[in-house]
DUF2259 domain-containing protein (Aquibium carbonis), 242 residues
Amino acid sequence: MIRKLAAAASIALSVPLGSLDASAGNISALEILGFDADASIFAFEEHGIQDGSGFPYANRFYVDVATDGFVPGSPIRVRIDDENATLEEARSQARTRGQAIVADAELAQNRGYTAGSNAITELSADPHRMAVNPRPVIPPIDTAVEFRLEEYDLEATGCENLGPTKGYRLLRVDLAAGGSVSLLHEDSRIPSSRGCPLGYRIGAVQTVHPDTGLPSFAVLIAVRSFGFEGPSYHWIAVAGRL
């Protein structure tokens, strides 16, 4: 079973979601930064303007693909408590601190491929299932991979009277082995960094096939919770080997 930190990071899709009006709550935007050279670390950045305060923030997360936990020094969280500060100032501070973990230039060279994506505004797709070909090769040379997400009631500390909070489990379906299912992650508790989650949906699958090292993936999951001025959407990631 992979993990136990589920990179409880707030993140958004590599497809720019933008920042909506404050009245719409807090929806982060994300840069998928990529993987290191041997695909043992997956990195992404969340950024936006915090609803309510108007403060800019930028958070970076570096995930150990083998354990699905954070690498030392991660996460990096920057919030500038000044309404006059710019988003780029917050992003610059987070970027500078992140270089000590993996250089951005290395991540950019191994960004990988967004094999599937599903913005939170998408209404027609299945929010709890995503099946993809890992690479844009036609006809495919890789086995397709499918991920399924299940929600269940799970109490979160400090979220009393806010409605039933939810945990999740993430499953991988091996389409080449008769549909055998393996468990990638299952919440036994809700980490405080996730807030008061009310629901989840699969947002994207990022893959990489490095020159050295094993092929890897990251599944991005949108977390819906309460924001200061409306619904808040944050993101978490589960990483592993293809």
In short: The two ends are 14 Å apart (CA to CA).
